[in-house]
Design goal:
With about 475 residues, the chain is an alpha/beta fold. Helices cover about 30% and strands about 25% of the residues. Helix 6 links the parallel strand 9 (about 185-190) and strand 10 (about 210-215). The chain is globular and about 70 Å long. The protein starts with a strand and ends in an 8-residue tail after the last helix.
């Protein structure tokens, strides 16, 4: 007799493991299937998905290590700290990153045991449906078929590769290979000036690489507020990142000497970039193949995403839901987590809600970039009357004391009602500061609400308050 579950989650990434934990908290008999070992030394499936294993967490660990090196090399003297020769033990840096990943993924295994969640080790796919529920085939070291009344698809995404460009994760790498460099290359090429390209390009630039980033789009960071993107491009160029936009990639060749990239620049002139290693970071595609969706009457759209109801994440198959990178919306771990919680609560008969306009975005460069809500160009395109308030970190005592005074905060509010429509930050700790804006927007707060709240002094959060004050021409420290 096959095992039967109330809820079965396919995929153990942020959307999947959080969905499983929330469903278990609500009293369901829950299982989660995961097959990716992510270089586990024992070849065992590892929980946490791309985010914890080869994405968010390891990249932030490397960013932190490279930032420490840069502080010592270039900023310690500003504080009166004298240092001698400094070098980076790259192998130790990578080892530290791996230790953090192992600790985090092990923590999820503990949470599964704590919440009595059954881990099914193997690739899960639909085999059919009958009166007892959906039959899910698990292909692992041992094959089995289990039954579930409700299924949550949370299989995440994988790196998009360019046609004709073979990613070997040695010379030509995607995000996974770029996290494992044994030494910093002298010359590093990056195709794609998105989040991954900028973050990993920053890591290896700090460790001594000459980094050239080739971006096909005519503008830099098109998803950002135009003012933020302009400031970021200026600051990154000052740091030494060579960012070229509007390029057209041609032939890419790899040999013993390295990698050669033929491309046309934004004027159409033929150019060539020779580098030791190349990172290809041109987006991600959903992991929706080999799920056996046809066995239950489901199809993906032209981009490979699973169509769902926008409010409940329900697919066209009753009792089957999909969350995270396999559905519409931004490919963000915290978006997947919220959708996982939402679906578990819907299965329990609750009525949760997600306001996708209030989901914050973050790029963990230095300075960090974060935003929530609409940007100025979007508001102009909508024809919405708005007012803007902006305040620089250069006028903030805490930022000056930290030696982190680049950037600013911008608050956009409705011209009549003063409702906050968007907040955009480039500066120190932007990833933490943006949370205040997200909370404010969830409660439909006005810019004046933030402006009248007492913020601690001295703190970086005062810049958010001053920007809110500036939206009404009331900034106090400028």
């Amino acid at each position: 007799m096959s095992k039967a579950f109330d809820v079965l989650v396919i995929g153990g990434g942020p959307g999947g493991y959080i969905a499983a934990i929330r469903a278990a908290q609500l009293g369901f008999n829950v299982a989660c299937a995961e097959s990716n070992a992510y270089d586990d030394p024992k070849g065992e499936p590892r929980l946490g998905g791309t985010c914890l294993n080869v994405g968010c967490i390891p990249s932030k660990a490397l960013l932190a290590s490279s930032e420490e090196l840069e502080k010592i090399e270039h900023h310690a003297a500003d504080h009166g700290i004298k240092v001698g020769s400094v070098s980076m033990d790259t192998k130790k840096m990578i080892s530290r990153k791996d230790e953090i990943v192992t600790k985090m993924t092990g923590g999820i295994q503990y949470l599964f045991k704590k919440n009595k969640i059954t881990l099914l080790k193997g690739h899960a796919s639909f085999a059919g449906k009958d009166a007892s529920g959906y039959q899910i085939q698990i292909d692992g070291k041992e094959k089995e078929t289990v039954t579930a009344k409700n299924v949550i698809i949370a299989t995440g995404s994988k790196a998009r590769h360019l046609p004709g460009v073979v990613v070997d994760n040695q010379l030509i790498c995607d995000n996974e290979g770029a996290l494992k460099f044994d030494v910093a290359p002298k010359k590093l090429g990056v195709i794609g000036a998105g989040v991954i390209g900028l973050e990993l390009g920053s890591v290896w630039r700090r460790l001594g690489a000459e980094v050239t980033i080739l971006e096909a789009m005519p503008s830099f960071l098109g998803a950002c507020d135009p003012g933020i993107a302009k400031e970021a491009q200026k600051l990154f160029a000052k740091q030494g990142l060579n960012i070229q936009t509007g390029v057209k990639i041609g032939e890419v060749k790899a040999d013993k000497k390295g990698v050669s990239i033929q491309y046309a620049d934004n004027t159409g002139k033929a150019q060539k970039l020779d580098c030791e290693r190349l990172i290809v970071s041109v987006g991600r595609v959903p992991n929706t193949d080999k799920l056996g969706l046809d066995k239950i009457g489901l199809k993906v759209d032209e981009r490979g995403f699973i169509p769902i109801d926008d409010h409940t994440c329900a697919t066209a198959a009753s009792g089957v839901y999909a969350v995270g990178d396999v559905v519409r919306g931004p490919m963000l771990a915290h978006k997947a987590e919220d959708e996982g919680v939402l679906v578990a609560e819907i299965i329990a008969g609750q009525k949760p809600h997600i306001d996708y306009n209030c989901i914050p975005w973050v790029i963990y460069t230095d300075p960090e970039i974060a935003w929530v809500g609409k940007n100025e160009q979007q508001l102009k395109d909508e024809g919405r009357a708005y007012k803007a308030g902006q305040f620089p970190f250069a006028a903030n005592g805490r930022a000056l004391g930290m030696g982190r005074s680049d950037g600013f905060v911008k608050v956009l509010a409705d011209a009549k009602t003063d409702e906050i429509l968007g907040v955009h930050i480039i500066g120190p700790n932007a990833s933490d500061l943006i949370a205040e804006a997200a909370v404010a927007m969830e409660f439909k707060a006005a810019a004046e609400d933030i402006a009248r709240i007492c913020h601690p002094h001295p703190s970086l959060s005062e810049v958010v308050r001053e920007a809110a004050l500036a939206a009404d021409q009331r900034a106090l420290n400028m």
